[in-house]
Design brief:
The strands form two sheets. This protein has a six-stranded mixed β-sheet with strand order 10-9-6-7-8-11, with helices on both faces. A five-stranded mixed β-sheet has the order 3-2-1-4-5, with helices on both faces. The chain has two domains: 149 residues, 2-Layer Sandwich (Nucleotidyltransferase, domain 5), CATH 3.30.420; 195 residues, ATPase, nucleotide binding domain (Nucleotidyltransferase, domain 5, 2-Layer Sandwich), CATH 3.30.420. It is globular and about 65 Å long. Strand 7 and strand 8 form a beta hairpin. By secondary structure, the chain is an alpha/beta fold. The chain has 15 helices and eleven strands. It binds 5'-O-[(R)-(carboxyoxy)(hydroxy)phosphoryl]adenosine and zinc ion. The site of zinc ion has 5 residues, from helix 6. Its main location: mitochondrion. It holds the Pfam family TsaD. It catalyses: L-threonylcarbamoyladenylate + adenosine(37) in tRNA = N(6)-L-threonylcarbamoyladenosine(37) in tRNA + AMP + H(+). It is an enzyme of class 2 (transferase).
């Protein structure tokens, strides 16, 4: 019987014995599968990070119609699409299941019903094809995707801002993270989605197929952010945590007030949607940037970042927002950090980032399972070691920075 966790070398040996493809090329090949939220994704990568084939089914349009993700609907859509998506990724790569070195799948954190579909499919797949299994932490995968595209050494600072998460962490290794701050209520993307919904942006002709964050970014380009003033959250708390619920409240109140003034029914478009979008986007950007600024200063004060080329990596769906990226650039320029954001398609959920995390783990022989019966999904899973209270105790005051962005 094979040991429970195989080392990278063992896996290689297994492949050489059992797969002509790998014997022929010497490459290690990983199939990555993602179903943690509302994207069914799969991709086949080689161990250099070359994407051999990928496929993605987005549930975005369905969830836009229902006004948010209904977990049972997400589960049904994953179930309906997973087979086709995995088959497409394999077909496009020209790789047979027998040639794969391992299968990597998101098992945490995420929606229980969605995670369950990916894990169940993967367990059957690896059993059928007798492949090792690599369980993946979704946020670790977001944090490390950048290494597929740039040679970024550990340690580096990472900001993850998506629909489900807003966090700052120090990446020290592929499975070693220090959590510096996280959202105390809702995530940045969720807030933008809810504001977009409250503004009925899906009925705006230019926004019908866009996610909330994308719609806000698009409309904000022509809006006047000074037309509304929303208070940046947590100004008196000198930590790196985030909070967006209060902002959401402020924006909702402003919308209700405007609806009354303009005699507009709830559900109809206000004349000032672009201004509200611009002011909301700016406040989200400003909050994210201030917490990131403090995280940079904290890491510097503790000697946690390298002297040479210290780097801030930004990922997650919200990281595809150009305005937020440009605001972050002001802070990294002021603090001497190098800012890296993967292209948008790698910031949002996909199978490629999961396969890449599998490649990283395979190379280091970490977390590779020969049996999957005991692997369970975990809807809640912290990222790394939580040092948020140490950051809070340091109470670092950030110097004022002019966040002037031309949209
Ligand atoms: O990482 P992701 O694809 O899924 C998870 O939440 O894990 O992120 C999706 C989130 C949504 O809330 C969406 O509104 C937001 O990312 N988003 C954006 C943009 N594109 C996607 N937010 C702001 N600006 C964008 N361009
Ligand atoms: Zn994500």
């Amino acid at each position: 019987m094979l040991p429970r966790a195989l080392s990278g070398a063992d896996v290689c040996l297994m492949k050489r014995c059992s797969s002509q493809g790998v014997f022929r090329t010497g490459r290690r090949l990983v199939l990555g599968i993602e179903t943690s939220c509302d994207e069914t994704g799969a991709a086949v990568l080689d161990d250099t990070g070359l994407i051999l084939g990928e496929s993605l089914h987005s549930q975005k349009l369905t969830h836009l119609e229902t006004g948010g993700i209904i977990p049972t609907v997400a589960q049904r859509l994953h179930r309906e699409n997973i087979c086709r998506v995995v088959q497409e990724a394999l077909d496009r790569s020209g790789i047979e299941p027998s040639e794969l070195t391992a299968v990597a799948t998101t098992v945490k954190p995420g929606l229980a019903l969605s995670l369950g579909i990916g894990l169940d499919f993967s367990q059957r797949f690896v059993r059928l094809h007798e492949k090792p299994f690599i369980p993946i932490h979704h946020m670790e995968a977001h944090a490390l995707t950048v290494r597929m595209l740039h040679p970024v050494d550990f340690p580096f600072l990472v900001l993850l801002v998506s629909g489900g998460h807003s966090l700052l962490a120090l990446a020290k290794g592929i499975d070693e993270f220090l959590l510096l701050g996280q959202t105390l209520d809702v995530a940045a993307g969720d807030t933008l989605d809810k504001i977009a919904r409250r503004l009925s942006l899906s009925s705006h002709p230019e926004c019908s197929s866009l996610s909330g964050g994308q719609a806000i970014e698009l409309l904000a380009k022509e809006g006047d952010r000074f037309a509304f003033h929303f208070k940046s959250p947590m100004g008196q708390l000198y930590d790196c945590n985030f909070s967006f619920a209060g902002l959401q409240n402020q924006v909702t109140l402003a919308i209700s007030k405007k609806e009354k003034e303009e005699g507009v029914e709830k559900g109809q478009l206000l004349s000032c949607v672009k201004d509200i979008a611009a002011a909301s986007q700016h406040t989200v950007a400003s909050h994210i940037v201030k917490r990131t600024h403090r995280a940079i200063l904290f890491c510097k004060s503790k000697g946690l970042l390298p002297q040479h080329n210290p780097t801030l990596v930004v990922s997650g769906g919200v990281a595809s927002n150009e305005y937020i990226r440009r605001t972050l650039k002001i802070v990294t320029d002021a603090t001497g950090l190098h800012l890296l954001c993967p292209p948008s398609k790698f910031c949002t959920d996909n199978g490629v980032m999961i396969a890449w995390n599998g490649v990283e783990r395979l190379k280091q022989g970490k977390g590779i399972m020969s049996h999957t019966e005991e692997v369970n999904y975990e809807p809640k899973a912290p990222l790394g070691l939580d040092i948020t209270s140490e950051v809070k105790d340091a109470a670092i005051k950030i110097p004022p920075l002019k966040l002037k962005i031309n949209s």
